[in-house]
Each structure stands twice: as C-alpha cells, then as structure tokens.
Amino acid sequence: MNNHEIDYKIYGDDMQFVEVELDPQETVIAEAGSFMMMEDDIHMETIFGDGSGGGGGLMGKLFSAGKRMLTGESLFMTTFTNQGHGKKHVSFAAPYPGKVVPMDLSELGGKIICQKDAFLAAAKGVSIGIEFQRKIGVGFFGGEGFIMQKLEGDGLAFVHAGGTIVRKELLPGQSLRVDTGCLVAMTGNVQYDIEFVKGVKTALFGGEGLFFATLRGPGSVWIQSLPFSRLASRVFAAAPSRGGSKDEGSAAKGIFDIFGGD
C-alpha cells in the first residue's frame, strides 16, 4: 500500500462532514477551504500541488500544481499530519447541501474520474490530476464535463455532491444518459461522451440543456440530484431585483422600510 490507511466517520444528513481518524504520523490531504476542526497535535501545512510525490523535485511539483490550475482549483492544498502519540481527529465539511461519498480506490480499480469541484479530501499518497476527454464533441460542448479531476492510488478519497446521490452499475455495453451537471464521478473504465439533444423544439423549449453525457459500461457511475450550478441559478432567479418588487416580497420590503431601510 502506498497510501496512508485512514479511518473515518461521516456525520449529518443533508449538511454532512467527514471526521478522519489519524494514527501517529498519518496524513490526510484536503482542498483549501474544506477544513472544519481538528484536535491537538495535528500539524497543518500548505503544500504546492497534491503532495503525492509522483513527480519528484521542483519540476514535478510545478507540473502537479499546473494540472490543478487547469481544473480551476487552487495551486495549493493542505495536509494534516498527526504528530502526537495517540489517535487524533480532523474534520472536513461539504461546501453546500448534499452528501459526502467515501471511495476506496483499491476497490475501484485504482482510479476515479470526478467533476472538477467534487474532491474534498483523501489519504496522503492519492494523486489528484486531470482527465482530458479525447473526443472533440466533449471538448467543445461538454461545458463542466470537459476537464475533469482524476484521483489515482489505493487509498481512501472523499468527494461531495449536491442533493441525493445514487450509484449506478453499468454492465458491458450498457449506456446511461445524464445531465452533464448531474454527473459526479465514474470509474476509469467507463466511456464518456457528449450527445446533442435531438429536435430543435426539445432543445429550445424543453427547459433542459442542449447536451447530455452518455456513459457506457462496464463500470460504476455516481449521479447527484442537485448540482450546485442548478441550485445557484434557481436562487439567482428567485432573488428580488435591485429596484424592489411590488408582488413577491413586498410585505417584507415594507417592514424593512419601516425600520429605516431604503
């Protein structure tokens, strides 16, 4: 085993966090901003790249950080190491309502491909890179699905997703069509492509996107019911305009005006 063998416990229902138990000298890596709390004797350090040690030297670290930059993530990650003598705990929280999904890479073929903002934390030694889709259609029309994150190793990794999460097992040759934003992760042997929604009326008036992901087995696929992009667009659409509204929210606006609001 090249990865640190960590234990964990997931708390909560719709606003979850994961508590990782570290033995002495064990380390977990996490995205910047996912840290929630930790006990004494845990040392926190910011590192360049993912800390997997696969590249070696300065150029290896620069290449590792550059891969993360292409996915829109920070150049830096944070490590948490237990420098005490007993078991210690550190916790990481999901950034929006949804679920934290543990994935044992040793049981999933050593490789998981996930949306670029899905990764939360992992045992030290897991490599976090990028996965380019080879087909031109995916590149030009896939939107958030073009450049995805690639998690490789034989340890535990944690990803998060919005709403309810379902895992689908695809048989050889079996396919599944998914909204591009609803795709969370898939095992490395799943074939992935983007398909155009047929029918101009369907594309323009159906209320859905112009493209969806076509996944073909064999392999495992994780789907989320509420992508953050969909949640954000609904919140933005429901927000009152800057000039105020005479219908929805007018009562609340009147109360605000009484107490000195503009």
What can you see in these coordinates?
- This protein has 262 residues and is of the alpha+beta class.
- It has a single domain, classed as Double-stranded beta-helix (4-Layer Sandwich), CATH 3.60.160.10.
- Helices cover 18% and strands 41% of the residues.
- It contains five helices and 19 strands.
- It has helices at residues 57-70, 136-141, 200-205, 228-238, 250-258, and strands at residues 7-11, 17-22, 27-30, 35-38, 42-48, 76-82, 88-93, 98-104, 111-114, 119-123, 127-132, 147-152, 156-162, 165-170, 175-179, 183-187, 191-196, 211-216, 219-224.
- A six-stranded antiparallel β-sheet has the order 5-6-3-10-13-8.
- The longest helix has 14 residues, at 57-70.
